[in-house]
Design a protein that fits this description.
Structural class: mainly alpha
InterPro entries: Put_ccm
Strand content: under 5%
Number of strands: 0
Distance between the termini: 34 Å
Helix content: over 70%
Number of helices: 3
Keywords: Membrane, Signal, Transmembrane, Transmembrane helix
Radius of gyration: 24 Å
Largest sheet: none
Protein name: CcmD family protein
């Protein structure tokens, strides 16, 4: 894995950790209010699981797009080199 991918993956993991910790921190800080202690959301665990699954899917899609873009860039470079060979332009044709 390249350094660029490692940095992006690390940033994505950090973002997911912050997003996951944010609702937990706000729920713990809400203990001061009596009304918030009595309120309960049915299916709250299921909601958190759905959020986690959603962020994992978004992260997977972003990773897939990054990999595909890298492959397309490599193909483009290879095709440009082949075109230079066929046309015989080489470095002289670059402006």
């Amino acid at each position: 894995m390249t350094t660029f991918c490692k940095e992006k993956t690390g940033a994505l993991v950090a973002f997911l950790l912050v997003m996951g910790a944010s609702p937990l921190a706000s729920a713990q800080g809400a203990g001061a209010s009596l009304a918030s202690q009595d309120t309960s959301v049915p299916g709250g665990t299921l909601l958190m699981i759905c959020y986690i699954i959603l962020w994992v899917m978004i992260g997977g899609y972003v990773f897939f797009v990054m990999r595909r873009q890298k492959a397309l860039a490599e193909d483009l470079e290879r095709l440009e080199g082949r075109l230079d060979e066929v046309l015989g332009t080489g470095a002289q044709g670059d402006v």
